[in-house]
Each structure stands twice: as C-alpha cells, then as structure tokens.
From TrEMBL:
Species of provenance: Vibrio olivae
EC number, UniProt record: 2.6.1.9
Cofactors named for this entry: pyridoxal 5'-phosphate
Subunit text: Homodimer.
Modified residues (N6-(pyridoxal phosphate)lysine): 209
Enzyme class: transferase
GO terms for MF: histidinol-phosphate transaminase activity
Keyword Membrane attributed: no
Protein name: Histidinol-phosphate aminotransferase
HAMAP family the record matches: HisC_aminotrans_2 (MF_01023)
Length: 346
C-alpha cells in the first residue's frame, strides 16, 4: 500500500517527536513539557453533539488573555495544526514556497513537504539571529516566512528590530509567521502589538507549555481578520472537542491564569538555577534561554546524551554540534540533572 501514497509522502521522514523516540526512565526532560499535573473536571454530558468550530467562550477567553480581539483569534489542535492551516490556505503545491531559518522547529519543513510545497532555508547567523540579507535574496515565490522566538532548540529571542524589518520587507509579498509557543515565559517579547501595524503578521500560540496542557492539544493563531477568515475556509468542521474547550476555558479563568503565572515564575527560577549550576562545570556552555528549556553545549554531546539515556534521564539531542536540549522540570528533576552531569565529568 505504501506505493499508492503520494511521492512526497513516500519519501518523507516523519518528525521525530519525543514520544516517537521513546526511552524509559524516571526523569523526562526531552519534550519541553510542564512538570505540573494540574487537576481539571470536564463536563462530558454533551458528547452526543458536535462541538462548535470556534467555541465563543474559548475564543473570547484567549483573546482577552493575549490582548487581541476575538475576530483576530482562531483555535486549533495545537499550534502544529496552525502551521498546516497556513500552508494549506496560502501555498499552491508545486508553485509556492515557505522559508524558515534553521536550526529551528522541524514541523515547518515536515508540513510543507507533506503538502508538496517548496522549502527554502536561510540559516541563522552565528549568534542565532536572522540573516535578513539572505532572506531578502530568497523571497521569490515565498508565501510564508516562519520565525520562532524564543527559538526551539536554541532558546534565544529574535531581535525585535529584525522582526519589524522582516515585516516591512515582506509587505504585500508574504506572511511572517511568528511561532510564540514559548512566549508565556517572556511575554514582554511578544510581537502581538505589531498586529495593529502589519496585516502580514500571524502569530502561533499554544497551551501546551506554560499552561501545562500538552496532552490537551489546544493552540491558537492570532492574526488580523482577513487571515483568520481565510483559515476558517480550510479548517476542519469540528476541530476542538467539547472537553478540550471546557478544560482550556478553566485554564484561562482568573484562577487558572493565576496558577499558570505562578508556575511560569517557578519554572523561570528553575531555569536560572539549572543554568548557573551547569555553567560552573568546566567545558560546558549553557546558552541563554527564554523558554522552558536550555540548550547546553558539552565537550561530547552525544556521549552525555547516551549516558543520561542509559541511566533513565531522558534529554533531547539537537542538530547543533554537541548540543543537548534540557527541558526545565521541577526542582528535584533539576537537581538530578545537575548531579548526574557533574558526576559524568568527574
């Protein structure tokens, strides 16, 4: 049956998510998940009925949280579906292209390849910032430019002035898609205010990270109504299950927002603690990070990753030479990581 699949799909290498890679152990710091397992009570009395395509209470709640209008907000099955919707809605297979700047999140490439859309890459500079001249030279036929900030896996923020330059550069040519999956850990760096000035801006958000709802699969696209209305043409009829909307609304309540803010503050403190402790180990470089993870450069990253794996400490190797990405866990998990790595280099 494989030969009946489209040629692009036959040749496709799937995204190796943390769950696909697997592993076994008692410290899981490989998927940028939250360590907080918050309790919810969902109303499951209406499951004989279809959900709304865009549940108004959920849209209103997230729009208020993000500081935008409801008509600028679309919810989907995680931010990953937002990536697919944008590509399906704006890119003609075999004609148009998307552009992204590695090292960065792998699903921009996978989604484009799945739909037969050309992929153009302009690598980040040595300081992991945008190569604006390189991007400008590659914009022919590009409909979407994906920028991740904080960037996964490097953890750095993209300079705001470069984002503005990119928006100006792509006016009436392409949509700049800002992936803000980790922005809740540094909300002051969001580009949401730029929606007032730029019609060619779309922002991806998720409740997987700061809201500790990775298993819920609830994401959002923020954009001006013209873009939102185009996406509504291609989204599935019932993308948000009733229990998902119910739980997401609880997380966005006053009590839920207070809890999320407290947990974000704790994770940011743990990130600082982990960074400072690992920075004292000779030969180890901790990259500045703004999300719920750190990229750490080791003398031999593969050896460290394998040793941790073999000892039940599941981290994430990265495409960056000798780089290992470590999610920020609770204080106990951070202490275990620090202790293991220190012992490894004794």
């Amino acid at each position: 049956m494989e030969k009946l699949a489209r040629k692009q799909v036959q040749q496709l290498t799937p995204y190796l998510s943390a769950r696909r890679i697997g592993g076994s152990g008692d410290v899981w710091l490989n998927a940028n998940e939250s360590p907080f397992d918050n309790a919810y009570v969902a109303d499951i009395s209406r499951l004989n009925r279809y959900s709304e395509c865009q549940p108004k209470p959920l849209i209103d709640a997230y729009a208020a949280y993000a500081g935008v209008k409801p008509e600028q907000t679309l919810t989907s099955r995680g931010a990953d579906e937002g990536i697919e919707l944008l590509i399906r809605a704006y890119c003609e297979p075999g004609q148009d292209a998307v552009l992204y700047c590695p090292p960065t999140y792998g699903m921009y490439a996978i989604s484009a390849e799945t739909f037969g859309v050309e992929r153009k890459t302009v690598p980040l500079n040595s300081d992991w910032q945008l190569d604006l001249a390189g991007i400008e030279a590659q914009l022919d036929n590009v409909k979407l430019v994906f920028v991740c900030s904080p960037n996964n896996p490097t953890g750095n923020l993209v300079k705001r002035e470069d984002i503005v330059t990119l928006l100006e550069m792509t006016k009436d040519k392409a949509i700049v898609v800002m992936d803000e999956a980790y922005i809740d850990f540094c909300p002051e760096a969001s580009t949401v205010d730029l929606l007032k000035e730029y019609d060619n801006l779309a922002i991806l958000r998720t409740m997987s990270k700061a809201f500790a709802l990775a298993g819920l699969r609830c994401g959002f696209t923020l954009a001006n109504p013209d873009i939102i209305n185009v996406l509504l043409k291609v989204i599935a009829p019932y993308p948000v299950p009733i229990p998902v909307a119910d739980i997401a609304q609880q997380a966005l309540s006053a009590q839920g927002l207070e809890r999320a803010a407290s947990q974000v503050a704790e994770l940011n403190q743990n990130r600082q603690y982990l960074s400072q402790a690992l920075s004292t180990i000779e030969g180890v470089t901790v990259c500045e990070g703004w999300g719920n993870y750190l990229l750490v450069l080791f003398p031999d990253g593969d050896a460290l990753f394998k040793a941790a794996w073999d000892n039940g400490m599941i981290l994430r190797n990265s495409p960056i030479e000798n780089g290992v990405r470590i999610s920020i866990g609770n204080k106990t998990e951070c202490e275990k990581v620090i202790g293991f790595i220190k012992n490894f280099y004794l």
